[in-house]
Amino acid sequence: MASGVFDDILIQHLWSTEEFRNIFNDHNRLQKWYDFEAAFALEQGELGIIPKEAAADIAANCKISKIDVNAVAAEIRRIKHPLVPAVKAVQQLCKGDHGEYIHFGPTTQDVLDTAVMLQIKDAHALYLRDIKAIGNALVKLCEQHRDTPMVGRSHGVQALPITFGHKAAVWLSEMGRHYERMRQLEPRMFVGGMVGAVGTQASFGPKAKALEQGVMKRLGLGVADINWQPARDRFAEYVNVLGLISATLAKIANEIIILEHTEIGELYEPFSAGKVGSSTMPHKRNPSSCEAVVGASRAVRYNVAYMLESMLIEHERDGSAWRGEWKALPESCLITGGMLSIMKYVLSDLHVDVAGMRRNLDSLGGFLLSERVMFALSEKVGKQTAHDLVYEASMHGIENGISFEDALLQNPQVKKAMTLAEVKAVLDPTTYVGRAPEIVDEVLQQQRAAGWLN
Fold first, then answer.
1. With contact defined as beta carbons under 8 Å apart, do 189 and 157 qualify?
2. Measured at the alpha carbon of residue 115, what is the angle toward residues 110 and 118, in degrees to the nearest 5?
3. Rounded to whole angstroms, how far apart are CA atoms 224 and 346?
4. Could you tell me if residue 338 is left (phi over 0), alpha (psi between -120 and 50 degrees) or otherwise beta?
């Protein structure tokens, strides 16, 4: 029976994807352990540390397809050790005494840390792919809605006009920085561990350095400068960046939810045929995909704190802190993968209600343009005086339920300073979006030049 959100077939699609579950599952974790053991044995064979025949036999049997995973798991529970049963399972498959040479020197954490790094590296490639896909979806929205006017809001209420392309460009720029962060951390992050019990490599003999370099080359990982079993900043940094990505995705999703409110009606997540919003209200078209992203992101952000706590290591190794990573790392990776997949779907087919955006620009009766009116008036009466006059007209109009145009023209000083045509011109919200279209162009140029969208 399923016991969690990742293996519950009814809801797992809201928390992860099959691609990421294929990376972070029991079988692949065990296979990554064996990938380390195989590479380690083969390199020891090349260096003459163990017989080549034994190395080849060990590598040939380090295959999950040959192992009874349930039996290994049962033995792990019995002896209370995470790796020894897996090692012995391969030993039993080897010919003669070849199995005696498996795991000839490393400590358990060497194997498990390196295996997790290999899993994350596989996931990392998918993250980059999906961030790029989201970036390209945002590029299309920027291009299509470069000049589409909409209400800009501050503190939850209408402020001044912007364009939807400008809003999408903010999202694009943010995702571009996340892509950059992911690429920048790669040389720091993707290293293996082969240091022995306390980090001195004493168990590997005089060829330890060459052995480590060879093993990591086989695994496609870099060589760490020193033991990182008591230095967990790499994993903590990675989850921190996943936390940043998840926060951005949740921010975008939450914005879509808000702008999909019936009273606003400017954006809508894709609605596929047969999608049901409510079991009792057939008319409902809920932003359920975006809601899933907002909810899932909270778990990643809490795991950021958990990973920072797991940096507190005692002495050269600490099992209690290490075990915290076993939960927070794969969980964060799975959830982030799921969020990226959902937002790729949402943003690639986002419905933009241009008419709804235009309608909302007029919903304040013109008061949205108070700043513009003030600056136009200041050319004739001075800025401070203009501010006072526009403030008086605004309060008069709002309190008496009349339009901003009427409120302005009822003020003798304003009417003396501005003609009716001038007032009407400055109250057109579609012509007061500042440099928004040009800013969109600049962001698109910068992001394309960065190369990550190719």
1. no
2. 130
3. 40
4. alpha
Q: What is the DSSP letter of 101?
A: G
pLDDT value for 12:
81
Cα distances from 419 to residues 72, 286, 362, 392, in angstroms, run 86, 47, 21, 18
Q: Which residues of the chain have pLDDT under 50?
A: 278
Residue-wise DSSP of 396-431: HHHHHT--HHHHHHTSHHHHHHS-HHHHHHHT-GGG
- Which residues are designated catalytic? 155, 278
What is d(CA 447, CA 258) in angstroms, rounded to the nearest whole number?
A: 27
Please state the domain extents for the chain: 18-104, 109-145+171-198+222-357+443-454, 367-426
Could you tell me if 388 and 302 are in contact, meaning their C-beta atoms sit under 8 angstroms apart? no
> Could you give the CA distance from residue 428 to residue 413 in angstroms, rounded to a whole number?
21
Q: Which CATH superfamily is domain 109-145+171-198+222-357+443-454 in?
A: Fumarase/aspartase (Central domain) (1.20.200.10)
Rounded distance between C-alpha atoms, residue 185 and residue 189, angstroms: 6
DSSP state of 265: -
CATH, domain range 18-104: 1.10.275.10
